[in-house]
Amino acid sequence: MTRVVARVVVLGDIVVDVVAAMSVPVASGSDSPAHIRYAAGGAGANVAAWLADLGEPVSLIGRVGADDAGNRCLASLTAAGVELSVAVDPEATTGTVIVLVDPDGERSMVPDRGANLGLRPADVDKRLFVPGDHLHLSGYPLLDAGSRAAAVQALTLARAAGMTISVDPASTAPILAYGTDRFLAATEGTDLLLPNRSEAELLTGRSDPHAAAEELAKRYGAAVVTCGAQGAAWATDGGGGGGGKAAGQVPAQPARVVDTTGAGDAFAAGLLASWLAGRPLPDAVRAGAVVAARAVTHVGAQPG
Fold first, then answer.
1. Has residue 89 got a pLDDT over 90?
2. Which of 43, 98, 133, 272 stands the most exposed, by the fewest C-beta atoms within 10 Å?
3. Domains of the chain as residue ranges with CATH
């Protein structure tokens, strides 16, 4: 069924990334030279920024601290064309993530979600949830007890409005802490799940990404499992994914990798922009791969 979506509503984290591009591997207990820079980040903010860069109308629901870091994040998102529905926390600091990027471009993260932990149902503007729009939920708010009620509120409002819904599971460690069965129960029936390979294996017990995608598609209508340089496996089960039961693989686009931070968020934005315009899922996955290839060629998680 063809979809024409007026606006994408994103709910997720807004943070400052402290990106340390390492010139050598980290030397434990000693000094490790790096090029360090500050950049706007956060899974929700990243997807919203890339959607705006692609010309998609997008609103972002989130929470920042009443500090310079929060002001900079909001100014950057506004300049990018994102409509903000963001609460300012007078007590908490804006979330911060230390990102260590090794010489091969792979990244490790040390997060402090800060004000994101305080996201409340009252921060979720009901006026944004209307028929014909789409909700993209980053998993972090759902997985953490402090922000979970807000994420559940957004899912409830989107379902009541008949909106299409996509979910990014976020990360394996918080899924384990929350419980895989609880996560599946909370998100089952949404239209599209976008896990990476590790998350898909955790949720299904299947190490083969194709088998995992097909298993997840039974619950979600459609699933796309990202596999880094190996591309992405996709599957539909004849439900919300648009079309009949099908599966396949899309290769990654060649790129000179500088920093993989935010590549999955860029992929999600590219995929959503195409899929919500009514294109078949394989074509949408290819569109996501193109945007992800752009993202890895510069330092930082948002469009350069």
1. yes
2. 98
3. 12-25+34-295 (3.40.1190.20)
